[in-house]
Amino acid sequence: MLQTITTFLGNILLVVAALMPILNPPGHAPIFLSMTTAYNEQEKAILARRVGIYSFFLILVSMFTGSYVLDFFEVSLPIIRVAGGLLVAAAGWKLLSEEGKSSNRKLEEQAEALEHSTEELRSRAFYPLTFPITVGPGTITVAITLGAGLKGPGLLHRLDMPIASIIATALVAYSLYFCYRYAERIMRLLGSTGTIVFLRLSAFILFCLGVQIVWDGASALLADFVAHSAPALLKR
Q1: In this predicted structure, what is the pLDDT of residue 102?
Q2: Closest Cα to residue 140, out of 220, 207, 76?
Q3: What is the DSSP string of 88-149?
Q4: Up-side HSE of residue 55: CA atoms within 13 Å toward CB?
Q5: Cα angle at 58 between 57 and 63, to 5 degrees?
Q6: What's the alpha-carbon Rg for the chain, to the nearest Å?
Q7: CA-to-CA dists, residue 143 to 26, 62, 179, 180, angstroms
Q8: Angle in degrees, 0-180, between the axes of helices 2-23 and 137-149, rounded to the nearest 10
Q9: What band does 194 get if pLDDT is binned at 50, 70 and 90?
Q10: Could you give the CA distance from residue 49 to residue 179 in angstroms, rounded to a whole number?
């Protein structure tokens, strides 16, 4: 019994320790803020809550069914990295390309934000805020790997694995919600100029992350191609 409890707690810590660094809620908070400038504070709170919920379910689905889905469609993880990396890089580039907005324009956007429908908020919360910005190809890859590696001894191992994963993912999702929900208050401490600089830097980092993910995926594809092609070429 004690061993089962220890393994259960160990699985929770394993999932949290694996997901938290790559999700990096505090690091993604400024990116969330820069992509929601057209929304008022109440709508940002709704978006933050939706992102937390969507991230929770997306991670769990990836963890328990991701490998089966990839096998069914015959899609490899390197392909997921390349495609997801392109989406992340595109989002970062879009943020970098935006020109500075005047205070009048910001007021207009806040007025327009009152007209955003619930359906629009839900759609925006999932794409691109949840996927691929928050839960990107790297997170999905880690989730799939965790789903294949989590094990628990004893008769309760079939319940141990999903329950531990659900609890750990819930903790991570709540940390995302908390950091996104109060991102604007944190940014206020930096002042107007500091916030602009920080958001631009975050957009650049997001773009670089996208390029890095694409490179990792392309490198894996190239290595696989060389591994399969080199023996055939040497025989000639």
Answers
A1: 43
A2: 76
A3: HHHHHHHHHHPPP--HHHHHHHHHHHTT--HHHHHHHIIIIIIIIIIS-HHHHHHHHHHHHH
A4: 33
A5: 95
A6: 20
A7: 20, 6, 21, 21
A8: 170
A9: confident
A10: 11
Q: Which two tokens stand for residue 189?
A: 């401490």
Sort residue 154 into left (φ over 0), alpha (ψ -120 to 50) or beta: left
Query: Using an 8 Å Cβ cutoff, are 112 and 34 in contact?
Result: no
pTM over 0.70: yes
One-letter amino acid at 204 equals F
What amino acid is encoded at 52 in this protein?
Answer: G
Tokens 């750990």 sit at which residue?
168
| Rounded Cα gap, residues 7 and 153, in angstroms | 8
Residues whose CB falls within 8 Å of the CB of residue 139, separated by 6 or more in sequence, listed in order: 19, 22, 23, 59, 62
Measure the CA–CA gap between 206 and 208, rounded to whole angstroms: 5
The answer to whether residues 163 and 171 touch, using CB atoms and an 8 Å cutoff, is no
